[in-house]
Predict the structure.
Amino acid sequence: MSPRPDLRRAVTIVAPLALLLSLLVWGVSSPPGSSPDDDYHMASIWCGGAPEVGVCETTGDPDARLVPAEAVRASSCFAFDPNAAASCPREEGMVVSTRGNWNGESYPPLYYAVMHLFVTDHVSTSIVLMRTVNAALYVGVLTAAFFLLPRERRPLLIWGAAVTAVPLAMFIVPSVNPSSWAILSASALWLVAWGFFEQRGWRRVFLGALTVLLIVIGGGARSDAALYAIVGLLAAGVLAFQRSRQYLVVGLVALTFAITAFAFFLSGGQSSIVTTDGAVDNETYPFASLAFINLKALPHLVFGNFGFWGLGWLDTYMPAMVSFTTLMVFAAVTFWGMRAGDWRKWLTLAGVSACAIGVPLVLLLRWGVVVGAGVQPRYGFPLLIILAGVALVGVATAGLGLGRVQLILVASALVIANATALHTNIRRYVTGLDDAGINLDRAVEWWWNAPISPMSLWAIGVAASVVLAASLIAVIWPTRDSNAVTDLTAASVRR
């Protein structure tokens, strides 16, 4: 027996709204300037358009710009100090900044140009608006991908997003950091491209358009995200492989997508990792020793995405309940998915795994640094998203064949981890982490000029995650006579 049609319809509305609300709560759980290198990214956003008085003004130095002081000094009193609340005094006027993307040497300019559209006269309002836009974009793209994908592919999208909905993702997606778009691109591109190979007619057209959009989103934000887009396209090509003329024709179109992604990669300064210009002279370790040291410590970097690495300015560490729980869920679900598959899956999984390990290692060796310096886990996080999804390919049911107790445990673990992480993140900025109390409304040193309190915001975030988990569990709840893939939208969407 499959879930009732009215339940399926309700979930298609409730689940995206609950996800959006959860991301929005995370988006306002921290102040302006709280995401990594926000002074650089905020200055780049404010200067993402033509010079404008009071927004971004030129100086006599081509490497410097005048930008609002509040934008570039928002984190001056709390960055790198987890015990300091975000109670920085508001600074008026314009200041000179030499940290920005105005010379186009580091990041692709597209992300900053789009975010610049949401710059207002009030810095805090602008930041909240940008975070809201990025959260809505994430939910909108994933929802569109879900409805366009073949029925049997939809669970891969849901489970891949669920097991990688770790604090890092929940924090970065609704932020002004370009990594927000990199995560979005990786979350859906490989599946959308796979659907492009499989579908026919108008669905193929829309899936192709969505593939291009995701390439532009990822490559327009970070050059490495363009490389991950190529990985996603290759994964889709291998998974969809068949000996047919139709596959060849579609594959040639996909090749143009890959060329487009590579062009985005070359457009940014991060492409220097493949040239001699990207290397750093290392005088501390011989190359072999540097490689050996980094190989031993690499799991800390790869799995740092699950909370073993600090959020924000790498200063907000998650409790063990968060990091170990999210890692265990990710490992358990992906390992469970490996019980089924064919040569296409195993080849793809091997390739993505090699990239997930090789990319951070190459960066470490090219930059002449060891784990803990220069390279952050979030740089390779998009590859883990792809890896999680590919690991589940070939599993027959929407519930992955998990029993009722197993599904409840997975959902409960993710909800508890999210609630704990959100509480920790709010606490870090409201009072600093030296105050370990559960009541976020006590002794508040920083908060938004809003009618909702920190504790109320946390409660809303927890409720949203509970509703999201419950709505998805409801439609994949196993029944004795249910063996087929659960279609979450069978009543409203027909292949």
Observations:
- The chain has two domains: 5-33+126-476, 39-122.
